[in-house]
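Structure tokens please, single chain.
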Amino acid sequence: MFRATVDDLSPIEIEFSGQQPLLNGQPLSWDLVRLNDRQFHLLFENRSYTAEVLHLDPATKTATLKLNRTIHHIQLKDRFDLLLEQMGMSTTSQTKLNDIKAPMPGLILSLSVQPGDTVRKGDTVLILEAMKMENVIKAPADGTVKAVRISRGQTVEKNQVLVEFN
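Here you go.
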């Protein structure tokens, strides 16, 4: 069984057991033809649809589909995700950002944040020069900067706390 959330709307349940798939517990009567690696033709309830897979990320179980010129974002959960969710151990819980530590000794070349700033996962926080290479240190999760423990031009040691988050 799968649970799919399309465009952040109510989730739908899809089950593939037996001859015919079930959509929210009801038999799904459709005809699906693969045109190439990314395109499909679908007949459903006497309507014709062209579907194109624009993006597929198996690691996060997300996809972006273009269905007759309309783009849809899909989040899938398989039976293991649903079981973990039932047990209160959701795999999609957001990572809490506590602090960023220096991955190696080096020199702080630039600092992009200050206390009170909000960062999103992947935002550049600072640039650390080590062994004549510039290392862009990015936020591993969303958070708000609580304190900046370093300044531009400062030398830091491995595992030294650079930035703290709320």
